[in-house]
Every structure is written in C-alpha cells, then in structure tokens.
Design a protein that fits this description.
The chain is α/β, with parallel strands linked by helices. The chain is built from nine helices and seven strands. It has one domain: Ribonuclease H-like superfamily/Ribonuclease H (Nucleotidyltransferase, domain 5), CATH 3.30.420.10. The chain has helices at about 10-15, 35-50, 95-110, 125-140, 160-175, 185-205, 225-235, 260-285, 300-305; strands spanning about 65-75, 80-90, 145-150, 210-215, 250-255, 310-320, 325-330. Strand 1 (about 65-75) and strand 2 form a beta hairpin. It is globular, with a radius of gyration of 19 Å. This is DUF3800 domain-containing protein.
C-alpha cells in the first residue's frame, strides 16, 4: 500500500534503497556441516521473513556505493539471560547527511564529542538527544541494524558440548595462525566473525570494499589481537561469498585513538542496540507478562525497532534452546501499542 502523505520523490528514493527480490540463500550446500548454528539460524530467519513477505533488506550498491561498513558491539556477558550481538551494516559513500545532522544534534544538546553508549544513558543531555540521534540514523544511513540474541542456556553454537567446541576453536585458531586465545574469548570471536561474515555475504556486492569496526573488548583488547580478528574475518568471509563474487579491500579498526566522531556515531548504533535488546529480553524472560520498566533512553531504542527508516532497516533474531535441547530461532517483530499517527521522517538532502 502506498502512503499518500509521502511525496513521490521520497517514495522513489526509499524504494531505490531496498533490494528487489533479495537472494537470502547464502550458505553453500558443500559447507553446510561446517557452518555454526548461529548463521544457520540467521539464514532460516531471513528465509522465513521472505516467505511471509515482510523482508526489507537495504541495497548497499544503490547510487553507486563502493564501500560497506560493519559496526559491531555486544552485550549481556556480565548479567542477564542472553548474550547480544548487534551489527550495523551500511553503505559508506552516502552518509554525509547523517554526519551533518549529527553535528547539529551534538551542538543542540551540548554533547561535544561524547560517545553515545548504553552505559552512559544516565547522562541527561545524552538521554534527551537519543530520539534525534535515532531519527538521523533512520534517514541518513542506508543499511541494516541486525540484533542477534543467544540464550545463555545454549552450551555452544559450534557443536553440542561447550568444552569440546571451545578446545577445537582454540586449537584451530592457533594452528591456522590466528593467535593464542583463551576458551571464552575464542568462542566469542568465532561467533562474532561468522555473523559479520554472513551479513557481508548477504548484503555486500561484487567489488565493494568492506570495513569492519568492533568495540574494544576481549576479542579486540590490543592491536595484535585485533589484527588476528581481522585476518580471521578475511578468511571466514570467503565461505559466505556468493559464487563468483570478489570483494575489494577488506580492512578494519577498533575505536580510533584519534577520535572520529562520525565512526563512533555509527558504532554507537550497535552499542545502544546490544544493551537495550539484551536488557529487554532478559527482563521479559525473568518477569514474563508482568509490566516492567527499562533503563531510560533504551525505551526510545526499543520503540525505534518497531519501524524501518527511509534508509535504515532493522532485524532482531532470538536464538533459544528448546526443551529437547535443540537450537531454535525466532524473528522478533516489535510493535507499538499506541503508534503515532505519523512517524517522524528525516529525508537526506543528498546522497
């Protein structure tokens, strides 16, 4: 159905940013047994959304875009019932409007170069600016924000037994030249890299350059480990590429020592998403259907997941352990109980 309140030029612009009949069959049949259950669950979820005809994926080659950025952050390790992995995958050549809009937002709320983060939502000025920040992402970034929540009851996503899987991952990383790792960060690294590689195979186009930026944590604690993680990604992504595809340069970074506010504003989308969805689903798992509150600011993020933007699309997949011990996946659709009559739109002035 066409929304007659939206101008034809905006409708055309939005349609140009969406993949037409996207190919969601990324996993290769000859490697099916080698893929971890997390990427098998991702493919199953996207196939299900396509069958239900509610799948919107960004066209990252629109308007001649040559670069794809992947920004990832994670939550839930210290508390809660889920681990969360959030990834913003976006076109890098058309984010000038987002950059300019965020300069205005930062100036209006007196934020300077302060980084948006879930843990700092207690900051009043930052919390009040969150709706404007999210609106800028919706209209100024062509991409997909994908949240993957994994129930902690699941022993491992790389087999049936945690210790066996972790030992195998540690051994393979070491033998293949990707460094010496402890068990827990090794498994987390493998999980993050496979999700990032899958999303790259799903959304990146032939010849595009790929840039991956991860937050500082135990998978990127120092330059040496970050180099190992990036080399691993460069290797793993080959098993998720479409047949005949060749990407351009593959590079990456952790948050820069010389701060790039633009890059941090993109990375913050994954940070806010990872913290907000982990908190919500952990509380829901614990409290059931009882009404409960969430951290101030994260309520704005959760409401934001209930709609797709002109440019930015969203997807949330929850991976659980069934009563029989199998891994199951479920795509979550956020809906507002009292949706606004007209959602705010931010329309890029240029691409």
């Amino acid at each position: 159905m066409t929304d007659r309140s939206i101008s034809p030029s905006l409708q055309e612009f939005a349609q140009n940013l969406v993949l037409k009949d996207p190919n969601v069959f990324i996993l290769r049949a000859d490697l099916r047994k080698q893929y971890p259950s997390v990427t098998q669950s991702l493919e199953s979820s996207f196939i299900g959304k396509k069958i239900r005809k509610n799948l919107l994926l960004p066209d990252l080659s629109a308007y001649g875009n040559k670069g794809v950025g992947i920004f990832s952050d994670y939550g839930g390790e210290s508390t809660g019932k889920f681990n969360s992995y959030s990834f913003l995958v976006c076109a890098m050549d058309g984010i000038g409007f987002f950059e300019e809009r965020m300069k205005e937002v930062r100036n209006d709320f007196g934020l300077g170069q302060k980084e948006y983060s879930y843990k700092d939502l207690r900051n009043d000025r930052m919390r009040r600016s969150v709706p404007e920040y999210l609106c800028a992402l919706d209209g100024g970034v062509n991409g997909l924000l994908c949240n993957v929540l994994v129930e902690k009851k699941i022993p491992t996503l790389f087999g049936r037994h945690r210790k066996t899987a972790q030992k195998r991952i540690v051994t393979e990383l070491n033998e293949c030249g990707f460094g010496i790792w402890k068990s827990k960060p090794a498994e987390k690294l493998a999980t993050v890299v496979h999700i990032a590689a899958y999303l790259t195979g799903l959304l990146a186009d032939e010849g595009q350059n790929v840039f991956w930026m991860s937050d500082h944590d135990d998978i990127c604690p120092n330059p040496e480990k970050h180099a190992y993680a990036l080399n691993l990604f460069n290797t793993v992504v080959r098993s998720y590429k479409r047949e005949g595809f060749q990407f351009g340069r593959i590079g990456g970074a952790t948050p820069f020592k010389e701060r790039s506010v633009l890059m941090l504003d993109l990375l913050s989308a994954a940070d806010l998403a990872a913290g907000s969805v982990e908190q919500y689903f952990s509380l829901k798992e614990e409290l059931g259907n009882v009404d409960f509150g969430v951290k101030g600011g994260s309520d704005d993020v959760l409401r934001w997941f209930a709609h797709d933007g002109v440019g930015l699309k969203k997807a949330t997949i929850v991976i659980r352990q069934s009563s029989e011990g199998f891994v199951t996946d479920n795509t979550v659709e956020f809906r507002l109980l009292d949706p606004p009559k007209k959602a705010p739109l931010v329309v890029p002035l240029r691409v």
